């Protein structure tokens, strides 16, 4: 009887830290560029998995993950960023532009043209 209790206690104490450090949490945030403009359609993946999400039209996202996982933020014409989840539930990120190349220049020109405010007379 005592040996069953000791084995059960060792089993519990051995695996208990796994439950503490691998708790699922929901991380939310906003993705912006260096000009503080929100970025819709940014891909956010949990590194090493096929789980992910996209930012909405306001650059907001929400993803369920675990402490210690790494979120990978990628967007056309923008440098890919990786951020480790350290238990926080809010993670805002500012992405920087890639060094321009032929296609990036055209994309940014089109993006700036399409997102320009309409002036009313």
Question: How does the SSE layout of this entry go?
Answer:
Elements: H1 2-21, E1 24-33, E2 43-46, E3 52-54, E4 60-66, E5 70-75, E6 78-84, E7 93-95, H2 102-114
Parallel strand pairs: 1-7
Antiparallel strand pairs: 1-4, 2-3, 2-5, 5-6
Give a description of the structure.
The chain is α+β, with helices and mostly antiparallel strands. 27% of the residues lie in helices and 33% in strands. The protein contains two helices and seven strands; from the N terminus they run αβββββββα. A four-stranded antiparallel β-sheet has the order 3-2-5-6, with no helix packed on it. Strands 4-1-7 form a three-stranded mixed β-sheet, with no helix packed on it. The radius of gyration is 21 Å and the shape is elongated. The relative contact order is 0.18. The mean pLDDT is 81.
Euclidean distance between termini CA atoms? 87 Å
General form: elongated
Task: Classify the secondary structure makeup into a structural class.
Answer: alpha+beta
What sequence of helices (H) and strands (E) makes up the elements? Answer: HEEEEEEEH
> Helix share of residues?
25-40%
Count of helical segments? Answer: 2
Spans where pLDDT lies below 50 across 5 or more residues: none
In percent terms, what proportion of residues is strand? 25-35%
Care to count the β-strands? 7
Radius of gyration: 21 Å
- Largest sheet strand order: 3-2-5-6
Question: How would a crystallographer describe the biggest sheet?
Answer: 4 strands, antiparallel
Report the average pLDDT across residues: 81
